[in-house]
Design goal:
- The complex is a heterodimer of chains A (105) and B (505).
- Helix content of chain A is 27%, strand content 23%.
- With 105 residues, chain A is an alpha+beta fold.
- Chain A has a single domain, classed as 3-Layer(aba) Sandwich (Glutaredoxin), CATH 3.40.30.
- In chain A, α1 links the parallel β1 and β2 (49-55).
- The longest helix of chain A is centred in the middle third of the chain and has 17 residues, at 28-44.
- Chain A is globular and about 35 Å long.
- Chain B is α/β, with parallel strands linked by helices and 505 residues long.
- Chain B folds into two domains: 2-111 and 122-251, P-loop containing nucleotide triphosphate hydrolases (Rossmann fold, 3-Layer(aba) Sandwich); 261-478, Rossmann fold (3-Layer(aba) Sandwich).
- Chain B starts with a helix and ends in a 27-residue tail after the last strand.
- The chains are: A alpha+beta (105), B alpha/beta (505).
Chain lengths: 105, 505
């Protein structure tokens, strides 16, 4: 858990953050989650992230693999360890903590 | 008696088909619920740790596949598929086979609170997606959620969780799948999280108690909306054959009452019983103090029954079969040939070997396997060492019920402590008895004398005299009518001269 905000320099390896957002269709919550996520990434992980959207209505079989229950769920696949953040990501502070971009206080 | 009114209602056919039922295939449970769980609706099964909730759910699923052509889904929150499979492999459930043949889908839901951050609004749609996917993948008609309450430990927002569970149970109902939801027993309520609030169709409570180091499992249908059901606590068993709830038969209350009679094996005793002996399918109690000849009387009955070619089953709670054979040989009753020929089977068990429910289940099984027409239980009073008074009475009621339903003539012996002729034990079970024969000792007058009388015998004219009898080396011989001091007529020995055998007891 050494990744604090200061430790991550923008010049580091590109796409270091591999994120996956699970949703079920275009619901208000999933749209809000996606908007919040891209905003946070643009602000804090510019150029170092990729987001994969998985719509479980189309690919229900993918829910089991990442142990998805709640939706929306953001899964940080890289860097390890895997982290999960559930909800519409409206609390930026909590998202940053969940992504290990900020110390839990 | 609460139980009787229950049973009487259950026997009413008009109450039977009120609601479509999904049979569990669990012996006894389908009888109590008049056909199974409410079809297409959720049933809550709650109980403490180790009470058999998961096993009940799995049995419901596996029987659904094997016996009722209904594929199933197991969503487990506590163990992964491999662990579940190995847990039930010993019961002969081959889960991997059912999974590979697409009859069963297992989804292990694991939620680790430390890995999860919660921010903003969410729902449990992911759970719905998974369940829906699993149901569609096998065409499931049955679903088991074991134990969904684990979610409460994994998610912080309890309000969302409760709302979503309510939605889930509604959704399952709309899907029309018959669902078993297991829940851990909570303090002051049926489940820790009060799931009974959400599942209002049927609730089954499992209980596992250990009293005096004897374990007893009980099952109770707390609630069954739209259907009548047995409301008593029913003992149930988990053994190598899986779950069974006991007894099946007591729900019926429709015993035949045959008119044909069978000999007690002693001519004079038949004479005292209206001249023809016992009614077939009736229950006979033989009570008396130690050494009064109860087992001897039972041996005569067995011998005579075997002579007629009837299959006889003898439960021994005190002696070994060899002891009994030896003792009975000494009064000229040789049962060994019947044992050899297979007409007579002994089943000897120390009462303390296991709890009453297990005794009851074992007896059920032995009866089902051997299919006797005559049964002897000697002596039932020994069961008092493993249960309370009420428990033994309940157990005997169920056993007698079962024997009656099977039209098996049963003779039970009961040891009366001390000199009192009629003790509490007998009084408590005597109402179940059709015929009651009391044996008594009398040391007055300088020598040991034995007496016998028929205290009651339903549905027949019977003698109410006390008759003296002796145990000779060719059997138990009852004195002639009317004279308690007379010698044993028809037997070559006078009572005073004949060898006194304290056979059996």
């Amino acid at each position: 858990m050494q990744a604090s905000e200061n430790a991550v320099a923008p010049s580091l390896e590109a796409k270091a953050y591999c994120l996956r957002l699970y949703v079920a269709g275009k619901t208000p919550k999933s749209i809000l989650a996606f908007t919040n996520l891209t905003r946070i990434c643009e602000e804090h992980l510019l150029g170092r992230y990729e987001i994969e959207i998985i719509d479980l209505l189309e690919n229900p079989q993918l829910a089991q693999g990442d142990q998805i229950l709640a939706l929306p769920t953001l899964v940080r696949r890289l860097p390890e360890p895997i982290k999960k953040i559930i909800g519409d990501l409206s609390n930026t502070e909590r998202v940053l903590v969940g992504l290990d971009l900020r110390e839990r206080r | 008696m609460q139980q009787k009114s229950d049973l009487a209602l259950l026997a009413n056919p008009a109450l039977r088909y009120s609601l479509p039922k999904s049979p569990t295939g669990i012996r006894g449970l389908d009888e109590i619920t008049l056909g199974g769980l409410p079809q297409g609706r959720p049933t809550l099964v709650c109980g403490g740790p180790g009470s058999g909730k998961t096993l009940l759910g799995l049995t419901f699923l596996v029987n659904g596949v094997l016996d009722f052509d209904e594929p199933g889904v197991l969503m487990t929150f506590e163990e992964n598929a491999g662990e579940v499979a190995s847990d039930v492999a010993s019961l002969g459930f081959d889960l991997p086979h059912l999974i590979s043949t697409q009859k069963l889908a297992v989804d292990y839901v694991r939620i680790e609170r430390s890995e999860i951050e919660e921010t903003g609004e969410y729902d449990l749609e992911g759970l719905f997606v998974r369940l829906d996917y699993a149901i569609r993948s096998v065409g499931a008609r049955r679903v088991v959620l074991d134990t969904i309450e684990s979610l409460f430990a994994g998610l912080k927002d309890q309000a969302i969780l409760r709302a979503e569970l309510r939605r889930l149970f509604r959704w399952l109902k709309d899907k029309g799948v018959t669902t078993v939801i297991t829940g851990e027993r909570g303090e002051g309520q049926l489940t820790k999280q009060g799931l009974e609030e959400y599942v209002s169709d049927a609730v089954i409570l499992l209980d596992h108690r250990v009293l005096d180091q004897v374990s007893t499992r009980r099952l109770r249908v707390v609630k069954y909306r739209g259907s009548y059901h047995g409301t008593n606590e029913y003992p149930f068993l988990i053994d190598e054959a899986g779950i069974s709830v006991l007894p099946v038969s007591s729900m019926a209350l429709a015993h035949d009452a045959p008119l044909d009679r069978i000999s007690a094996g002693i001519a004079h005793l038949d004479g005292m019983l209206g001249g023809k002996g016992f009614y077939r399918g009736s229950t006979i109690l033989v009570s008396g103090a130690a050494g009064t000849g109860k087992t001897s009387l039972a041996a005569h009955f067995l011998d005579a029954s075997c002579r007629r070619g009837e299959r006889c089953l003898c439960f021994l709670f005190e002696e070994s079969p060899q002891q009994l054979l030896r003792n009975m040989r000494s009064i000229g009753v040789d049962l060994e040939p019947w044992m050899t020929s297979g007409l007579l089977q002994f089943h000897a068990d120390r009462p303390s070997r296991y709890g009453l429910e297990t005794h009851l289940a074992t007896m059920h099984q032995v009866v089902a396997d051997f299919k006797p027409t005559v049964a002897v239980l000697d002596p039932v009073t020994n069961l008092m060492t493993v249960g309370t008074f009420a428990d033994v009475q309940a157990m005997l009621t169920r056993m007698i019920d079962h024997l009656k339903t099977e039209n098996i003539t049963a003779l039970l012996t009961s040891l009366t402590p001390g000199r009192t002729e009629v003790e509490r034990t007998e009084t408590s079970i005597s109402s179940l008895m059709d015929t009651w024969i009391v044996l008594a000792n009398d040391d007055l007058g300088g020598h040991h004398r034995r007496g016998l009388y028929v205290l009651k015998s339903r549905g027949m004219a019977h003698s109410n005299e006390l008759r003296e009898f002796v145990l000779t080396d060719h059997g138990l011989a009852i004195a002639a009518n009317g004279d308690a001091h007379a010698t044993a007529a028809g037997v070559g020995h006078r009572a005073q001269e004949g060898p006194e055998h304290h056979a059996g007891l």
